[in-house]
Amino acid sequence: MSDDLFPGFEALWIENSWGKAFARAGGSPDAPPLLLLHGFPESHAMWHHVAPDLARSHRVICLDLKGYGWSSAPSGEDAYAKRRIGREVVALMEGLGHVHFALAGHDRGARVAYRLALDEPGRVARLALLDIVPTLVQWQRIAADPGRNPHWSFLSRPAPEPETGIGRDPDAYFEGLLAQWSGQGDLSAFDPRALHLYRQAWTVPERIHAFCEDYRAGGRDGPDARADADDLAAGRTLPMPVLVLSSRRYLDKPGAEPALEAWRRTFAPRAEGCQLDTGHFMAEEDPAGTLAALKGFLGG
């Protein structure tokens, strides 16, 4: 079914230190490499509308993050810290022959992306961040408005509380989030084939646990927030060109600090921005607008 969503793309199973990673790769092997990292609770399939067009000018790799999609879902302390995943992604890309690449991430994938780019800026040619603010800023927003994004606090609670709650009816929980965060308030934006792939993953107990571990690593006092705090204190910023792509109906709602401003005052003072009139899942809700923004930024 994933083959249908990515015509002409190769299926890659990549052995690494934590198991196997799954990816789809398309475009000329000689073209500039572009890595696409998906968000929660999805998989590489979220890129199916935009990846084929991007592959006309780039060698596009759509990766299932650790614990998501068809990639392995290991457990262990700090296994889902974004610094660790970033290093693993660099090793994976090196194994594919790419030591320097453009990088675009949505949601949790964007958190891996900006951490990787801060830690190893020489690896990243251009960085596109879709619909997030830095993790430390996100927790500041939640502290100021405890009702904001309650899934952050719920999913980061100690095991097995969230795993048990979700496990009673995973489809209801995750489909409820997809509908709640989309601009239309339902599942109409999602291709049934992609939804089938998402459901395949999020009904597996080991993957539910991995999702929660991802959020625990991004918890209020977790390694992701600590890494942000250390970099802010050191004045570290992203030296490569950065695009902040935000949604009007999810991230940049009235009264919230615009995502672009949050990035400019923290890690990306020279970032450029684009806002789409969508909910959170812009690559599926408005693929034409998302593609236009990415192509304009990435070139080719």
UniProtKB/TrEMBL annotation:
Q: Which Pfam families match?
A: Abhydrolase_1 (PF00561)
Which intervals hold domain AB hydrolase-1? 32-217
Please, which domain of life does this record's source organism belong to?
A: Bacteria
Source species taxonomy: Bacteria, Pseudomonadati, Pseudomonadota, Alphaproteobacteria, Hyphomicrobiales
User: This chain belongs to which protein, by name?
Assistant: Fluoroacetate dehalogenase
InterPro entries assigned: AB_hydrolase_1 (IPR000073), AB_hydrolase_fold (IPR029058), AB_hydrolase_sf (IPR050266)
